[in-house]
Design brief:
Blueprint lengths: L3 H28 L2 E3 L8 E3 L2 H19 L4 H23 L6 H5 L5 H5 L8 E2 L3 E2 L6 H18 L6 H20 L2 H21 L8 H18 L3 H7 L1 H14 L13 E4 L2 E4 L9 H5 L7 H27 L1
Antiparallel strand pairs: 1-2, 3-4, 5-6
Length: about 325
């Protein structure tokens, strides 16, 4: 299914991100858009302007595809949804934490372009059942998916490179499945995002030179949700996102509701010269990172590798689900 326009799009998204990331790192220092790397003893200050370059790389890649191919309502819906989620995250990066109860509600707007442009299909394909008809409830599920997925991706953006590695795993699964099923939209988006994220990883991996920020993680989550809905890959997307979803569920239940773990009195992990280890405080939020560091001291990049392995394992399960239950 690969055509010349796909190769050009991939290279455009990759090199745009590769070239502009250092410039946006400098922009972060100049404008004071900085975050503190709390998982290091020295607490270095890192620009959180990654969302800007991720959006730019995706925009340039998909625009090149449109120029070489044809205009697409599906890609328009994707770009608008991603921009809305990005904007919410960027406001949070600029002004600080958005009320955890307001944030999910605000992210509902990211699903509106999909409904307005009518690029969804209210007949998801389920294992053992086949094609279903959810005409009445599906638009509600479309809106609800954005706060769920966006917050789940945002919840794993806690260590150097964690959001990038885990997102590459997701889009790799979507790419493989789209090649098997001749799904042009999913193929295009996943290939573009792999180009963007692979280039961004060079600066975001341990030790990170730039953070994706809330703008970057919410944008990635919106692209994931849109790809699943428009590409009719709802089930495999859920399976590929299992680490993200389970992490978010543990946080919500351990905090007893929608609360921000960032400003919670007891942090889920502790940091010292030996590395990261799980907090022994029973009141600390339960997260995937806390579970992976239980009773051990682990260097940050080793924890990220463990998260990447879990995500690629879920990606493999998603591909196997498609092969054996959805084809």
């Amino acid at each position: 299914m690969f055509a010349a326009e796909h190769i050009v799009m991939f290279l455009t998204s990759f090199f745009t991100t590769l070239f502009f990331t250092p410039l946006f790192i400098k922009l972060g220092f100049k404008t004071g858009l900085i975050g503190v790397d709390v998982h290091k003893d020295s607490k270095p200050r890192i620009p959180k302007t990654g969302g800007l370059v991720i959006f730019l790389g995706m925009l340039m890649g998909l625009s090149m595809y449109i120029l070489l191919q044809n205009f697409s309502l599906e890609i328009l819906a994707l770009l608008v949804s991603a921009f809305l989620a990005f904007s919410i995250g960027f406001v949070e990066d600029l002004k600080g934490e958005i009320n955890p109860k307001v944030k999910p509600l605000s992210l509902l707007v990211a699903g509106v372009p999909i409904l307005l442009l009518q690029v969804y299909y209210p007949r998801p394909i389920l294992p053992f059942i086949g094609t279903t008809r959810l005409t009445k409830i599906y638009p509600i599920l479309v809106l609800a998916s954005f706060p769920i997925v966006c917050n789940a991706v945002n919840g794993l953006d806690v260590l150097n490179g964690s959001v990038t590695y885990t997102s590459i795993a997701f889009f790799t699964a979507i790419l493989i499945i789209s090649l098997m099923s001749s799904n042009e939209f999913a193929l295009t988006v996943s290939l573009c995002m792999i180009g963007v994220l692979t280039a961004f990883l060079l600066y975001n991996k341990y030790p990170s030179k730039v953070f994706a920020g809330n703008s970057g993680s919410l944008l990635i989550g919106a692209v994931m949700a849109t790809t699943a809905i428009v590409g009719r890959l709802e089930v495999v997307a859920i399976i590929a996102l299992l680490p993200h979803i389970l992490n978010e569920m543990h946080i919500i239940f351990s905090l007893r509701g929608f609360k921000s773990a960032k400003y919670y009195n007891s942090r889920p992990v502790t940091v010292d010269e030996k590395g990261i280890s799980a907090s022994l405080d029973p009141k600390s939020p339960i997260t995937l990172v806390r579970m992976l560091t239980a009773r051990v001291h682990v260097r940050e990049d080793k924890v990220v590798i463990a998260l990447a392995i879990l995500s690629f394992y879920s990606a493999l399960l998603a591909v196997l689900t498609h092969i054996f239950f959805l084809r």
